[in-house]
Design brief:
65 residues, alpha+beta, 17% strand, Alpha-Beta Plaits
Length: 65
């Protein structure tokens, strides 16, 4: 399946793919396009959401002075 995204998001997708033994991406076409295994697209989206959404452990509350 052809996926088009911003270069920053594509970079994250390539990183996710490399940390999962290249299970998702068939071919990296250019700066904004990838061919992704259709059967793995849902899982790749899920992994992207996990990386993109801040978890409570990553967030720090700042108190004003």
């Amino acid at each position: 399946m052809l996926v088009e995204c911003e270069p920053a998001i594509k970079s994250i997708l390539v990183h996710i793919d490399s940390t999962h033994h290249n299970e998702f991406i068939i071919e990296d076409l250019d700066e904004t396009h990838l061919f992704v295994k259709e059967t793995m697209l849902h899982l790749l989206k899920q992994k992207l959401e996990e990386v993109s959404l801040p978890s409570p452990a990553r967030c720090r509350r700042r108190s004003g002075g």
